Amino acid sequence: MKHSAFLLLMPMLLFVVVASAQNASSDNARPRWMHRRPTATNPSFKYEIVSASATSLDEARNKCLAELISSSGLSRGVVVSSDYKSKETLSQVWTNGKLAERVDYGSETVSSAKCKEGELFVENIDEYWTRDNAGTYYLTRLYAKSELGRTPLFDNVELTTRYGARGLWRSAIVPGWGQFHKGSNLKGGMILGGMVALVGGIVFTENQRADYVRRIGQTHNVSQISSYQTKRDHFATARNICIGAAAALYVYNLIDAVASPGARRVIVRKRHNGQTFAFLPAVSDDGTPVVVSTLTF
Predict the structure, then answer these.
(1) What is the pLDDT of residues 175-222, one digit of tens each?
(2) For 140, which of 14, 51, 121, 125 could close a Cys bridge (C-beta 3.0–4.6 Å)?
């Protein structure tokens, strides 16, 4: 009995360990672009994912930007320095009758590097971070980046947590599939597991009920018939409860697949103008060639 109780508690203990290892994150689910990078609608630029870790978000963002510049060829043999100014905006949004708080992080930067003359256009699309108990931030950023020396035509990008019919038709076929598709793996696993358990309960209780019906027809013993009838009715009641619970879970599964938000995803559309963040060649006061950033609206 003790061994059985221990085995039942093991998944809960593992969940507590995992939850404690990752103390905080910017979102409940990892954005979908971390698993599948968006595809640019034209060859003038590409999407790039950069990761870094640091003791603060500003430092991690600084490292991501430095890595992006380095991978573009602007910082070969030179040191890149960035000056960040960040701000946080707290907003409250009603979602499914519940008040949720969202912190939006914004930042602006002036970066410089000694390098040959060149031009790089960069647009920050989204970011996701986690923080462990030691206070270290693990940041991943999605950028749109032009080729060096080429003016891009960036896409019009929209971030959303809504999936609409994409989750509905999947959950209609296989309960929980829509939740998995939206990145809600825990919820999807609970729905799928609950449905499997309830279907198994329906099959088991119906088989037991049918077995007692068969036994009633094979005996003339009044006491046995009475006992079999009682058990038959109990299994019939249990079967009906399982059927009702399965139906309720299936309906909830459909509603949740449509209404609840999922992992943030990127919607890409073509655009001809918009905000652009660019690194432009310039000359400092002492005549040293440098690269400065500009933000165009």
Answers:
(1) 999 999 998 899 999 999 999 999 999 999 999 999 999 999 898 888
(2) 51
Q: Which residues contact 145 (CB under 8 A, 6 or more apart)?
A: 45, 46, 47, 48, 68, 72, 120, 121, 122, 123
Residues 113, 80: contact at Cβ < 8 Å?
yes
Domain boundaries along the sequence of the chain:
2-153+274-296, 166-259
Query: What is the C-alpha to C-alpha distance for residues 126 and 274, in angstroms, rounded to an integer?
Result: 16
Q: Say how far apart CA 186 and CA 232 lie, in whole Å.
A: 36
Q: What is the CA radius of gyration of the chain?
A: 29
**What are the two backbone dihedrals, phi and then psi, of residue 46, each rounded to the nearest 5 degrees?**
-145, 160
Q: Dump pLDDT digits (tens) for 30-84.
A: 899 998 889 899 888 899 999 999 999 999 998 988 888 877 766 444 344 444 5
Threshold 0.85, pTM exceeds: no
For residue 163, give the 3-state DSSP assignment.
coil
- The whole-angstrom separation of Cα 25 and Cα 3 is 35
147 secondary structure, DSSP code: P
